[in-house]
Amino acid sequence: MTKKKTKIKISLCDLANDLNGFDNKSIPIGVGYIASYCKKIHGNSVEIKVHRSFKELWKDIKNSPPDIAGFGSYDWNYNLTIAALKKIKKLNPSCLTVFGGANAEIHHKDNKIFLENNETVDYVVYGDGEKPFSNLVEEYKKFRNKKNWLKLIKKSEIDGCRTLLDGELISGQPFDAITEMDEVPSPYLEGFFDHLLEDSTLMPIIQNIRGCPYSCRYCVSGTQFGKIRNFSIDRIKKEVAYLEKKAKNRFLRFSDDNFGIVQHDLEVSKFIRKNFDEKE
User: Fold this and answer.
1) In whole angstroms, what is the distance from residue 253 CA to residue 158 CA?
2) What are the DSSP calls for 4-53, one per residue?
3) How many Cα atoms sit within 13 Å of 89 on the Cβ side?
4) SS3 assignment, position 100
5) 102, 74 in Cβ contact below 8 A?
């Protein structure tokens, strides 16, 4: 079926179980970074929304399914993620589905087994997701209006992405991780989380530094790009000021693997302390 040349609708999801409130009471910062970077690269050709609960996701897409759905998966939401992927594929078999997050393995053999066992997943993105996901969107834009578009995309070797085609694992080159972190726009300042900040149960998260110098085997960070990279102090200040005005939840969480390991952490801590004292 030929697709119309309209904006590409993208749903980015890090789902929390919400049977009795949220089991993970925080803003989904990871998929937010992917959203803001993708919007920076692809501009008005994409329409992106970030989702925290399946109920909110389903309400948004049941009458207007996404063209691309990306999921951040972790131990606490793996089953929910897989169930949501199945529902989306049933709703829109033409949706391009992407699986990432800490549960996305880096080894080819593990990816092949996972994709064989989960036919509703089209692509696995491992490690930092900003560049690979945007690479995948770029390929989708090239082929979306062609017959057999998914097969054409899968024939491309997309850096940072892996897929199955006729039983064979197709993999691009390992991507170059972003080293200048301010290249990734703030999902807070870009407004991607405004609807979630209205929920007082969801705690805002800020990432100050990314990466870990250690290789601990019990920790997912030990298997990923280890160079420590930080957002600028000016960026952190703007985000804190934004959250002071917008967030209903008055706590702030840092997602750093090792907060306090570099001098930059001390500068951020001093700023927050000073900012808090001035509000007394």
Assistant:
1) 34
2) PS-PEEEEEE-----BTB-SS-B--HHHHHHHHHHHHHHGGGEEEEEESS
3) 15
4) strand
5) yes
Report the C-alpha gap between 129 and 176 in whole angstroms.
Answer: 11
The alpha helices in 92-232, defined as continuous H runs, are 108-117, 130-143, 149-155, 194-197
Query: Up-side HSE of residue 192: CA atoms within 13 Å toward CB?
Result: 31
End-to-end CA distance of the chain: 61
Q: Which residue do the tokens 């149960």 mark?
A: 201
pLDDT in tens, the chain (280 residues): 445 558 999 999 999 987 666 666 899 999 999 999 999 999 999 999 999 999 999 999 998 999 999 999 998 899 999 999 999 999 999 999 999 999 998 899 999 999 999 999 999 998 899 999 999 999 999 999 999 999 999 999 999 999 999 999 999 988 778 989 999 999 999 999 999 999 999 999 999 988 888 878 777 676 666 578 889 999 999 999 999 999 999 999 998 888 888 888 888 888 888 887 777 6
| DSSP for residue 111 | H
Nearest CA to 95 among 42, 57, 40? 57
Q: How far apart are CA 142 and CA 140, in angstroms?
A: 5
Residue entry with tokens 């389903």: 58
